[in-house]
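Continuing the batch. This is chain 6 of the set; chains 1 through 5 are on the previous pages. Same settings as before, nothing changed between runs. Recording input and output for traceability.
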Amino acid sequence: MTMLFEGALPVGVSMWKLAQPWWEFVLRGLLVYGFLLITLRLTGKRQVGQLAPFDLVLLLVLSNAVQNSMNAGDNTVAAGFVLVVTLLAAHGLLSWITWRSKKVETLLEGRPQILVHNGLPDEAMLASGRITHHELMAAVRQAGLSDLADVRVAILETNGRINVIAKGAGAGVGVGSADAS
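Output for chain 6:
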């Protein structure tokens, strides 16, 4: 009886036999991770901090777009494991490096930006963070305030959230945060 799939490996073997050397998956994973890290960093804090429906779609499309560049068409379980370990290790290493070095942390994550100081919005900072007045006012309202004149400081944090501190606020009073979305 002839085999339906000549040259095909048994399932137990085909799941684990890599089509490329293991180090190529590591290199591909690191290259794609680095590329995505740089491009997402360039989009700014606002885009990283929010996750609107179109952002979720973008994230899913990005993951699909880079899949083949990482696995070189090898859909084995072993290739997936190598890539997962590579990406987790790269992420863990970068987390550790940013924890140890303020310079690297600032380079990768940026610095908090003051959007409002003593009730006066900094239009240049709002523009550089691509924060609209509507988004700023939403964060102000979420902090329990209704007017920018009542804001001592509003800060765009490195995670994309806007923290608002009211004038004359004591510990925990008049302090709020909102996603910049």
